[in-house]
Every structure is written in C-alpha cells, then in structure tokens.
C-alpha cells in the first residue's frame, strides 16, 4: 500500500477573515477525509517583497521564498483557493509563485512546480465566483509544468455569512462540492503512486 499523498493547501489571500481561507479549509478537509496528508499554510506567514530581479541579484532569494520553495518541493499536490481581484489572481499569489520559481543561483527553476498536481477552488463577491481568477491561475500553473485537475469549485456572491461558525459552507451542496475537489486531488495522487 502506498503512503498517503502530501498536499500543500493555501489561499491566495492574506486577509484575516478571507473567504478563501475559509474555503481552503473546507477543501482541505475533503482531501484529508480521502486519505491525503494536508499541510495548510497561510501566505501571511511568508511575507515577500515584490519580485525584483535586481533585488534577487543583490541579495539572493528572500528567506521566506526559500521556505516556500522547500514546502512546494516536499508536497506532491497543491490545493489552492484563489480570490478574484480585478478579474484575475491576487498579486500576493502571483508574487509567491514568481519567487518560488527562482533558484538560489539566480536562475529560473521550475523544480518546485514540475509534475505537481493542483486543484482549485475560489470564493468571490461577484456572480461568477472567481472563474476568471481560476482561468488565469490555470494558465500560469500550466505554463510552469503543473498538472491541473479539471475538478474545481466556485462560491459566487460569497460573504462571511456563506460560512457558519464552524467554518462550514451553509449551503450543503456547495460544502460537499468544495470537499469533493480536495478528495479528487487525493484520489488522483493515490492513483499516480500505485
């Protein structure tokens, strides 16, 4: 029997009461219930300067970029919940990806991404629930050799009231669908290991 697949889960938001932080916890619970080993992180714990090639050349990778690279490299799957900012992914998420795509010798390196498998969820205030952000994130991740599952879920017109005090989505169908995305990622990774 193969070992449990390792999944790094995070939201592309640093806000304390982020809807996407709540949603990634739901999706992560689905991945765990299916047998995945999920490590849930908060990008707020890894503050990074805006990517700047001159800064990188002068100082190397920031310590938090090195920490994130190690986390990405030690997990087989990525479970990401992205907000939608102005029709695309938030800057904090893109910036983290940009730093993680660098190597300590100042060269591009996709070792932290190549062959990883990702699944996406999103919560947004708008009526399409972050579909544009998911589309852009799919394009970004696909370009850096991440395998993307077709399984995804979006929570449209999301507010704090969309979640109960325990962090569950109040809509039972939406809750199950978000958990199913995490479970699908675990099952796919399990099949890869067999």
In words, what does this structure look like?
The protein has helices spanning 19-33, 53-59, 63-73, 91-100, 131-143, 172-193, and strands spanning 6-11, 37-40, 77-81, 117-123, 147-155. It has 194 residues and is α/β, with parallel strands linked by helices. The protein has a 5-stranded parallel β-sheet, with helices on both faces. Helix 1 (19-33) links the parallel strand 1 (6-11) and strand 2. The chain starts with 5 loop residues before the first strand and ends with a helix.
Question: Any key phrases for this structure?
Answer:
five-stranded parallel β-sheet, alpha/beta, 194 residues, Rossmann fold
Overall radius of gyration = 16 Å
Derived structural class: alpha/beta
Order of helices and strands: EHEHHEHEHEH
Q: Superfamily at the CATH H level?
A: Flavodoxin domain
Query: What fold name goes in the CATH topology slot?
Result: Rossmann fold
Instruction: Report on the biggest sheet.
Output: 5 strands, parallel
What's the end-to-end separation, in Å? 8 Å
CATH architecture: 3-Layer(aba) Sandwich
Domain tally:
1
Identify the overall geometry: globular
In what range is the share of β-strand residues? 15-25%
Per DSSP E runs of 2 or more residues, the count of β-strands stands at 5
Low-pLDDT windows of residues: none
User: What is the name of the CATH class?
Assistant: Alpha Beta
Summed over residues and divided by their number, the pLDDT gives a mean of 95
**How many separate helices?**
6
Oligomer status: single chain
């Amino acid at each position: 029997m193969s070992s449990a697949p390792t999944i790094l889960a995070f939201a592309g938001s640093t806000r304390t009461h982020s809807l996407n932080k709540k949603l990634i916890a739901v999706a992560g619970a689905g991945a765990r219930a299916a047998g995945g080993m999920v490590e849930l992180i908060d990008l707020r714990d890894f503050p990074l300067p805006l990517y700047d090639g001159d800064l990188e050349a002068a100082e190397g990778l920031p310590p938090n970029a090195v920490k994130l690279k190690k986390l990405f490299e030690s997990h087989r799957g990525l479970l990401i919940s992205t907000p939608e900012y102005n029709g695309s992914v938030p800057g904090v998420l893109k910036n983290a990806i940009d730093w993680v795509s660098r190597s300590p010798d100042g060269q591009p390196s996709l070792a932290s991404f190549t062959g990883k498998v990702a699944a996406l969820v999103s919560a947004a205030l708008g009526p399409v629930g972050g579909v544009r952000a998911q589309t852009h994130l799919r394009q970004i991740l696909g370009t850096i050799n991440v395998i993307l599952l077709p399984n995804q879920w979006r929570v449209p017109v999301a507010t704090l009231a969309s979640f109960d005090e325990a962090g569950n989505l109040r809509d039972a169908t939406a809750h199950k669908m978000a958990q199913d995305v995490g479970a699908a990622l675990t099952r796919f990774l399990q099949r890869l290991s067999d």
